[in-house]
Amino acid sequence: MQFGLFGESQSLNIIEEDGEVIYYPNFFDENFFSELRDDINWRQDQITIYGKTHDIPRLQAWYGEENTEYSYSGIKLVSNQFNQTLNTIRERISTQLGYEFNSCLCNLYRDGRDYAAWHSDDEKELGKNPIIASASFGETRKFIFKHKSNKGIAKVELNVEDRSLIIMKGRLQHCWKHQISKTSKKVDERINLTFRTIK
């Protein structure tokens, strides 16, 4: 199942089985890309797989309130204090949708070769059935979901636009995986902010 581009001020239920995914195109009036590109403390982390160390295929940074340490796949992320731009975006989500978050994983996809492999955001620090808000700025990229166990459920593909927001909640992280696929097409940079709550 594939979803394209949508008009303003809409929300679309992308997944409703074994969790929820809700897509809000044009959620943000402003494009925060330049501020985020300049002000985030981007870093190149590495991951070791089968004894070989590789650069993660994107830049990232971790921001959070006090005592919000986070790690995944053996990577311990160094915490930064929320800056003004991230706080503005976080407050916009809270004001309009009522969700509160105390941390944020920032990702910078520099071109089509940068991607995120299949994974679920199901680390123990996030608790059971976490709510995650994923804000995107910059280039449109393809976001794909697949069910972990039910092969009869088709993959869901979504073209994630500039200034859009995705809400993932319920059992989604336990039942589904997701990825940002790489592409051979020439694409510009994209910044993704995934706001979370560390328990």
Describe the fold and architecture.
With 199 residues, this protein is mainly beta. It has a single domain (2-196), classed as Sandwich (Jelly Rolls). Helix content is 13%, strand content 41%. The protein has 3 helices and 17 strands. The protein has helices at residues 33-39, 84-97, 172-175; strands at 2-3, 12-15, 20-24, 46-49, 52-55, 59-64, 70-72, 75-77, 79-80, 103-109, 116-119, 132-138, 141-147, 156-160, 164-169, 176-180, 190-196. The protein has an 8-stranded mixed sheet with strand order 2-3-15-12-17-10-6-9, with helices on one face. A 5-stranded mixed sheet has the order 1-14-13-16-11. Strands 4-5 form a two-stranded antiparallel ribbon. A hairpin with a 2-residue loop joins β7 and β8 (75-77). The protein is globular, with a radius of gyration of 16 Å. The relative contact order is 0.27.
Features:
about 200 residues, mainly beta, Jelly Rolls, eight-stranded mixed sheet, five-stranded mixed sheet, 3 helices, 17 strands, disordered N terminus
**Shape from CA axes?**
globular
Q: Low-confidence spans: pLDDT under 50, at least 5 residues?
A: 3-8
N-C termini distance: 34 Å
CATH homolog superfamily: Alpha-ketoglutarate-dependent dioxygenase AlkB-like
- Quote the beta fraction: 35-45%
Q: What is the CA-atom radius of gyration, in angstroms?
A: 16 Å
How helix-rich are the residues, as a percent range? 10-25%
- Lateral strand order in the biggest sheet: 2-3-15-12-17-10-6-9
Could you say how many structural domains there are in total?
A: 1
CATH class (first level) name = Mainly Beta
CATH topology: Jelly Rolls
The average pLDDT score comes to: 93
SSE arrangement, N to C: EEEHEEEEEEHEEEEEEHEE
Structural class: mainly beta
How many strands appear in the DSSP assignment? 17
Number of helices: 3
The largest sheet is: 8 strands, mixed
Q: Judging by the overall fold, what is the CATH architecture?
A: Sandwich
